[in-house]
Amino acid sequence: MSEKVPAPWSPVELTMNGTYICAKVWGREYVWDNSLLPSSVRTAGREILSAPAALHARFGREEAEFKEIVFLPISAEEDKAVFTVCASAGNIIVNIRWTVEYDGYLEMALSVVPYWSFWGVSPVALDGLWITFPLTCESSGLYHYWPTDRYDGLASGAVPEEGVSTAFKPYFWAGWEFGGLGITTETDEFIELSPGKPCVSLTPEGDGRILRWDLLDRKPRAWSDREDSWGDALGPVDYVFGIQATPVKEQRRDRMEFRIVHESYTCDDRLLMPDENGKTLLDKYKDNGVNWLIFHESWSAMQNYGQAVEEERFQTCVRECHSRGIRVMAYFGYEYPTNAPLWHEKKDDYLLKNPAGHFTGGWQRHNPCQRAYMVCYAGGYAEGMRERVKYAMEHYGLDGIYTDGTYVPWSCANAAHGCGYTAPDGSRRPTFPVFAVRRHVKALYELVHGMGGMIDTHQSSCLLAPTLAFADSFYNGESIQEKLKESFLGFLNLPAFRTEYMGKNLGLFPQMLAYTDSRMPIEKAASLSLIHDVLPRPGVGAEASAAVAPYWKKLCAFGSGDAEWHPYWEKDCPVRPETEHVYCSVYEKDGKLLAAVSSFNEETDTVLLRIPEGAALGEIVPGIASAERDGCILRLNMKAFRPELIELVFS
């Protein structure tokens, strides 16, 4: 560990020998072997490339080979290393600046440069440019891209037999349940493709799949219809990509110790008012096992500003939480309010604008009255937010922050802080400030962790590794709540959950958002999450946390966080369902098994499990199901969508 590299990462290790470079970071290794792009990527203990990644250039109908490859070292520090690669193909020059950061993020700053016409070469004839990452089949069966095509839609899951293709997306990830490779870029400004042609695709080829980004299928517009001259030179076409193998860090082994609930705060005594039995709501939370409380947006008098409605009362409330062993996070979101002190001076820099030049969002609150509009972290708001977070943690004794949307690079066309571009037809087009958001949350992580805190973030279907690397946990599922309630099994397929909601492919721990009601009680959400080693997070009030409390208690008592986990989709899972539409994942530790069992079968209450020979039946939690054993078959009388934790002990 070093001052420049925060926990849990380690310094960048760079080895360079001529045109061979090896960069090692926590859990991953990238190699360039006389290649413009990595020839090897290792993560989660495996090689994920089936052949070297490559930049391809086509001239007419012929693809040209890159030659004259030269590597130049620039710098090598603990937190990052920089080198450049220079090459030529046909009559173009390619210059790439590679930056390797300690979290395994690679920045590829690519310049495609036309030959100087005074050399007497023919006019540049480049009419095709694309990048390929050949992936092994076992390392590319799942995919995710962002943004989704609709707010309540899915853009994750198992790769279909024919593959996946899409128009421009600022992020695309391919992988498996425990790792993968993500590619990001902020803009399609210099991506020029024929109408209807996909920009990003993941398609089968041979024994694997090709992740491909198409950049050009014709001569770049910047080089067309004019000649190169000394006073009017043809410049390069520039692209910047982020490339990152996942997981970005080890998933926290104490993740089951984060027993979190959300709570509103309206500056009243509701949390501390005793009931007829002398119990306050905080007491009930403590009794249920809650050890983290998140105060949602109403705690701050100005939306996201970090100034409590009544500061002394809020400080008292935080102290009362601490006295019960409950730590506190407070909400910081993605909006700037009209009652902020510097609204008039800062709004045009801080706020996100759509291509028409208008603000977005506009959440309305009362007591005090205000509206709040969406911010863009490419502007000055990022620094201002960090100052407010520092103030709130110091002044109120907060143990961390809950961020809403902060890790999401919403599209923005605000030219005042460098977002968006003007298309050839004169219209404004948005860009996605991935790199600005990454810089912001990286600094935010260093600030909050430097103060001994943690960051939980809500990111609504945006599984963007370059930003989420700098969160401790994420809270996902808001965008699909109504779809789940309408058709729980018909909407969210299990491969999609394993991709987007399980967190192991990124090295983060998630919790599942569950807006519970009669259509989806908290137990129903738990039936989906627990078989994926994920907790549902209960909302306001003691009732929901009481329903989750037995699962919390048993998982923590068993030590599930550092147990060996056998997921339901793996053939060697030691407990196997014999009943259709029943799923079982198993924790193994100290000669014991703990099976998380969920039935999605509404046609029967009888569930049969095949258990290991010699296993004795232990505790069943919450114990709604009854069990009978017949040799290696365990017969459960078990309702659908009511999960059970079943302990098995070996003498």
Number of strands: 42
How can the largest sheet be summarized? 9 strands, antiparallel
Mean pLDDT, as a whole number? 94
Q: Please name the CATH topology of the largest domain.
A: Beta-galactosidase, Chain A, domain 5
Give the overall shape: globular
Output the strand order for the largest sheet.
Answer: 8-9-10-11-20-17-16-13-14
How many structural domains can be distinguished in the coordinates? 3
Distance between the termini: 43 Å
**Poorly predicted runs:** none
Quote the beta fraction. Answer: 35-45%
Q: Can you name the CATH architecture of the largest domain?
A: Distorted Sandwich
Percent of residues in helices comes to 10-25%
So how many helices? 11
Task: Return Rg in Å.
Answer: 27 Å
Structural class computed from helices and strand pairing: alpha+beta
CATH class of the largest domain: Mainly Beta
Structure description:
There is one protein chain. This protein is of the alpha+beta class and 651 residues long. It has three domains: 234 residues, Distorted Sandwich (Beta-galactosidase, Chain A, domain 5); 222 residues, TIM Barrel; 86 residues, Chondroitinase Ac, Chain A, domain 3 (Sandwich), CATH 2.60.220. Helix content is 16%, strand content 36%. It contains eleven helices and 42 strands. The strands form eight sheets. Strands 8-9-10-11-20-17-16-13-14 form a nine-stranded antiparallel beta sheet. Strands 21-22-23-27-30-31-32-33 form an eight-stranded parallel beta sheet. The chain has a six-stranded antiparallel beta sheet with strand order 7-6-12-19-18-15, with no helix packed on it. The longest helix is centred in the last third of the chain and has 17 residues.
